[in-house]
Design a protein that fits this description.
The complex is a heterodimer of chains A (307) and B (227).
Chain A (H helix, E strand, L loop, with lengths): L1 H18 L2 H37 L2 E5 L5 H13 L3 E7 L1 H11 L4 H10 L7 E6 L5 H9 L1 H7 L3 E4 L1 H46 L2 H10 L3 H38 L8 H7 L1 H25 L5
Antiparallel strand pairs in A: 1-3, 1-4, 2-3
Helix pairs in contact in A: 1-10, 2-8, 2-10, 2-12, 8-12, 10-11, 10-12
Chain B lengths: L1 E9 L5 E10 L4 E5 L6 H8 L7 E6 L2 E2 L8 H5 L2 E4 L11 H11 L4 H14 L15 H13 L5 E5 L7 H18 L2 E6 L2 H7 L2 E6 L2 E6 L7
Parallel strand pairs in B: 3-8, 3-9, 6-7, 7-8
Antiparallel strand pairs in B: 1-2, 1-4, 4-5, 9-10
Helix pairs in contact in B: 3-4, 3-5, 5-6
Amino acid sequence: MIGTTLQRIITSGAKNFTRAGAVSFATVLIMTVTLLIVGFLIFLSALLTHTLGLVQDKVDVNAYFVVDASEQSVLSIKKDLEGLPEVESVIYKSRDQALVEFKERHANDQLTLQALEELGENPLGASLAIKAKDPSQYEGIVNYLSGDAMAAISGDIIDRINYYQNKTVIDRLTGAIDTMEKAGLLVVILFAAASVIIALATIRLAIYTARDEISVMRLVGASNMYIRGPFIVAGIMSGMVAAVIALIIFYPATWYAGAALSSWLGGFNLFSYYLSNFALVFGILMGSGILIGALASWLAVRRYLRV
Amino acid sequence: MIYFDRVTKIHRDGTPALDGVTLKVEPKEFVSIVGHSGAGKSTLLRMLMAEDRPTEGTVFFEDIDVHAVPRSSLHHYRRKIGMVFQDYRLIPHKTAYENIAFAMEAAGRHQDEIDSDVPHVLALVDLADKAWHFPHQLSGGEQQRVAIGRAIINQPEVIVADEPTGNLDPVNTYEIMDILKKINELVGTTVLITTHNKGVVDSLGKRVVTMERGRIIRDDAQGQYVL
């Protein structure tokens, strides 16, 4: 009995969907636009994450050691740092390396090179470039480096740490990243809400044309669930068709945008992101399509079931 | 048995539509309710269908107090009554066959029953050859015959028809009334119609209830249309 009813509801919903023609088409179109916006937001948030990663990657803290610090003690500090959970990586630069880089950097500056030559020995100390997993963790790392515990182990071999010069930049960046993430989330919620409301209004309009029909069904002796079921099925079908269309549109769209904008977006390729995260995008679009379609139909029919 | 017990309906703006109507309809009766527009005929039927609530009084269908039925189980009650409207009210995107089958599906009837009963009823209303036409492909008379098919498919105890011939020409009017009469005489279904077609009422030779300004002013066992 329940099986037959369910089957009838689904068949009837499918028939309503195909026979309603223009109305179904309009609903699918609006839902497609809605889902395109949802998809666009997925890509935007991926891009944002990628860009933030790039920016964060460029931030680091350098600890410069005194000239007579032994390589061994520097390396042991490196090892200590790598043991900290908030440290992402530590790169060691030896005195010789620093000198080579310095010379390269001043290759056109004869005066500096001459001065260096006259000095006779390498005036540059070794250094460690430290990268934290999160920009807000630099302070802790620096405190650790300049703290007493560290001084006791390694002696006074750290010459200076460029964190304090960079502090304002890092603070500002941390703040900016934080704001961007919050603003991004807000934009996502705002757009999603707006598109859901538009889809709701469209489905409500589509069902408005069927209001007489709904009252007839009531008078003929159909239960509320039996009347509502097919509309919900039709709504879900609109959502599914819209999701498929949106997924198909994204294929050439991301391919084109990926090729054209990749260098612009710091190496972020939309097309390869789409392909590698297809299951995720598919799931989100299909899921929101079904959810919006079902919810909108449910709410829209409710108004006309009062007979 | 249908029993209207001192039913009064006063619209929100204060105008009375029904004024203390008491009416008893026995099983297997064929009752025509006549009167001018606004006399309260349709309102009376709406009370029976529980489309509207009376301000005072009660409506009984057998032992059911119609307006005490909760909205969630109203559909069970309505399946006991077949409803026919002046404007047919078919579902526009369903074929004649599907419109009739819908009433059975909604009642949760078995597919085998639907497959055997619907063609039978379509033949009864003389539409076997137009089973797969949509309402807009049918004439007014044909649409009304589909509506009657839908009303009788669940073998209701009562058929309620509100101005069933109001939109039809004389030939179609005759056909529709003929079908309703047959159902009443052959199957024994109680029929309750409203009309202002004098010809229809006079040719029937059945009980006529005359209404005016929300009251019953005449009730004749073998009545004529006198207004």
